[in-house]
Amino acid sequence: MYNELQYQDCIDACLQAMNASNVCYISCLKEYDLAMLRDCITLTRECAEICTFTAEAMTRMSPYASEIAELCMKMCESCAAECERHAQDHCKQCAAACRKCVEVFRAMYCVA
User: Fold this and answer.
1) Distances in Å between the alpha carbon of 96 and those of 2, 76, 101?
2) DSSP state at residue 38
3) How far apart are alpha carbons 60 and 17 in whole angstroms?
4) Is 16 in a helix, a strand, or coil?
5) Using an 8 Å Cβ cutoff, are 45 and 25 in contact?
6) What is the C-alpha to C-alpha distance for residues 75 and 55, in angstroms, rounded to an integer?
7) Nearest to 23 by CA among 81, 85, 90
């Protein structure tokens, strides 16, 4: 069983990915070509929500933290892949934060 301090790197990475996803979401809505960014808008919003939930679950020491973390990793991977398709700085920053979150989770849970 992990304690909150053992989760701290994951919680921090989740919060960084959440913040980057929220910034990207809001910034995409201000772009001229919303149709081109439709998937990015959808995924960044979803990613921010899941990262928030994951950080909260880890803070509460949820017995389902590892399963929730798996979902968070999948969401962050999807969000990063979509954001990498776009040239905007906010998309690049979101992709980097999401990739970092996945990296931290993989190190924590020793998964490939």
Assistant:
1) 27, 10, 9
2) H
3) 19
4) helix
5) yes
6) 14
7) 90
Neighbours of 44 (CB within 10 A): 30
Confirm if 43 and 79 have CB atoms less than 8 A apart.
yes
pLDDT in tens, the chain (112 residues): 455 567 889 999 999 999 999 999 999 988 888 888 999 999 999 999 999 999 999 999 899 998 999 999 999 999 999 999 999 999 999 999 999 999 999 988 755 4
The identity of residue 71, as a single letter, is L
Are the C-beta atoms of 112 and 34 separated by less than 8 Å? no
